[in-house]
Amino acid sequence: MLIYILSRGPKLYSTSRIYKVAVAKGHTVRVLDHMECDLLIEKGEFKVVYNDEILQKPDFLIPRIGSSVTFYGSTVVRHFEQMGVPTLNNAISILNSRDKFRSLQFLAANGIQIPTTYFSNDLFYAKKIVQNKLGYPFIIKVLEGTQGLGVYLVKDEANATEILSHFIEKKTKIILQKYIEEFSGKDLRVFVVGNKIVASMMRIAAGDDFRSNLHRGGRGEKVELSNEEQEMAIDSCKALNLQIGGVDILRGKKGPMVIEVNSSPGLEGIERVSEVQIAEEIIDLVERMSNHDN
To answer: Whole-number mean pLDDT of the chain?
Structure first.
């Protein structure tokens, strides 16, 4: 099987692991930088040009699209889809999961518990919403941030005035979210592959940081998930139509709730902590999906 992996770099841990496992299983694999893929439509045919080469149609596509290049990356994925190429996560599911508020809309519509969340085009009534619905402190998240970037804990009204003014001036789209104090600095990362949980860990923030991301110096520990948390993780990926996803869950006083679903979750930290070979699970799923399509 000819597999293309869309990734900004073949040496990235997750890309390298998936590549090596696929090659070991006898597949032909190419890593393509999606930002270097030029898209051509000619006489109703969809073609991808890469370094002046018109690419052969692959048997399967594995997208690893980073948040900073979501728009173009998902457009490349859609182009391959129009060529009839099966893809691990499709363009629409990538877009829906990457937009933080849109993903929460899908989750809530499917009965999945999320923190109280507010989104506004102009933030005119934001302070009133904070007073009446969120309280202090509360969380601000940039709409398409990842790895803990663009996430802020707003402690009081003066702090809110300063931060909100900054985002209004920059015209940056943000969401406001209730702060779950009892689980601050911790969350659960659940890795779902093909509607099955393959690995999980608890992420714990470094020092007094309220963000638990390993990229920000946090650490991971093995964790036992409740039945409710397991169902919540699987249902979250189903709601967003993701074949693989990293589901982030908080344990609140009123039960678990999902705060985010990542369509290109990293493998390095969770493979190390859980001691699960997630890359093998991913290629196994690719093989099953390919056989099903055939």
So the answer is: 91
